[in-house]
Amino acid sequence: MLLLCIESSCDETAAAVVRDGRQILSNIVASQVDVHARYGGVVPELASRKHVEAITVVIKEALETAGVSLDDLEGVGVTRGPGLIGALLVGLSTAKALAWARKIPLATVHHMEGHILAPFLEQELEFPFLALAVSGGHTHLYRVNGIGQYRTLGQTRDDAAGEAYDKVAKLLGLGYPGGALIDSLAGQGDPGSIRFPRPMLHKPGFEFSFSGIKTAVWRYVEEQSGPITGDHLADVAASFQAAVVDVLTAKSLAAAEAEGLSRIVVAGGVACNSGLRKRFKELAAGCNLTVTFPSPSLCSDNAAMLGVPTDFYIESGSVSKWDVNAVASWPLDTVRLDTL
Ligand code: KG4
Ligand code: ZN
Q1: How much is the pTM?
Q2: Ligand nearest to the CA of 167
Q3: Which domains does the chain have, with CATH numbers?
Q4: How far is ligand 2, taken at its centre, from the CA of residue 9, in Å?
Q5: Is 222 exposed, middle or buried (0-12, 13-18, 19+ CB in 10 A)?
Q6: Does 14 sit in the ligand 1 pocket, CB within 6 Å?
Q7: How are the residues of the chain apportioned to helix, strand and coil, as percentages rounded to the nearest 5?
Q8: Which residues line ion ligand 2, judged by CB < 5 Å?
Q9: CA of 86 relative to ligand 2 center, distance in Å
Q10: Alpha carbon 169 to chain centroid distance?
Q11: Is 12 helix (H, G, I), strand (E, B) or coil?
């Protein structure tokens, strides 16, 4: 089945053509990063306007790159939520209009569902597995029993991991978005030089908290007599990253063990992080675990990742009705029921 997928939940306008939920024929992402960088974060109203400007251009490019026309499409998939409501509505309205006009089925998909199923675009995986979903808005551990069958095991009580990266980058004067900037600086620093806290690490359960690490970095910066630069800046970045990676990996391993799972998928923008990838690889080698990361271009926001659930939902008859609406917040656990 030839699918067009559309993603517009935050600050990336994305469209992809995917065959049978597995083969990417095109995956176009128009980032609005330059628009929001001067404000130090995503401005929702600007994001919606930019999506309106970009969406038809991005879809056209996705079709052209794939070498297909609107007539060839057999289904449309789109992110219904969670995300910025105005931004989501641009993608959803476009997807509805296209599917309705072409008389082809529409499937609405949860943004994090796309993220955690992205590895299927590169390899087949067996269910069940544990998913660590780490992005700008999420830090969640899910038990994934199949497509549409998710159970939340734990989540952050406050900031998401990506949000903590972005806020720490801002207070270190590095710019926005900060995750990749801190990651590359961290590679040059000493992760053991400053001992930042590891919140929730020794508490039972699978909840996270990142606002304390962010505050600890803020206090450390405030205590310094001048601006932090050079090797010192790299040490702060490396020490912050070490704290985040310690908590994410320890909680994931504990959750996998408690659930009797030997496979972990790490997904979302923060899954691009080189420190996280390295640590998971080391841990997996020592304890009979398979840890899968999608390629970086499939970790950050894109539309191809929606192809996996879209294909499944349309094939199994979970097609959305024309009055389906966007949802700003949406627990993944109920996604299948809501889609039907
Ligand atoms: O999944 P994503 O592209 O968008 C959301 O759904 O939020 O994730 C974006 C987040 C941002 O907070 C960004 O700073 C973070 O992912 N990120 C990283 C890295 N690359 C992107 N965080 C840590 N290390 C990275 N290399
Ligand atoms: Zn995302």
Answers
A1: 0.96
A2: 1
A3: 2-117+299-338 (3.30.420.40), 127-293 (3.30.420.40)
A4: 8
A5: exposed
A6: no
A7: 50, 20, 35
A8: 135, 301
A9: 16
A10: 19
A11: strand
- Tokens 């929606």 belong to 306
Other Cβ atoms closer than 10 A to 2: 17
H-helix segments, the chain: 33-37, 44-66, 85-102, 111-117, 161-171, 179-186, 211-223, 230-259, 274-286, 296-299, 307-315, 335-339
The pLDDT assigned to 339 comes to 54
Residues of the chain with pLDDT under 70: 337-340
Q: Is ligand 1 within 6 A of the CB of residue 275?
A: no
Query: Which residues are registered as beta bridge partners of 12?
Result: 31
pLDDT at position 331, please? 94
Find, among 63, 64, 36, 62, the residue nearest to 49 by Cα.
36
What atom of ligand 1 comes closest to residue 166's alpha carbon? 14
Task: Evaluate whether 313 touches 319 at the Cβ level (below 8 Å).
Answer: yes
Q: Which atom of ligand 1 is nearest to the CA of 268?
A: 1
Q: How far is residue 290 from each of residues 248, 253, 256, 279, measured CA to CA in Å?
A: 16, 11, 11, 13
Question: For tokens 């993220």, what's the residue?
Answer: 115
Cβ 127 vs Cβ 144: under 8 Å = yes
Longest Cα pair distance anywhere in the chain, in angstroms? 65
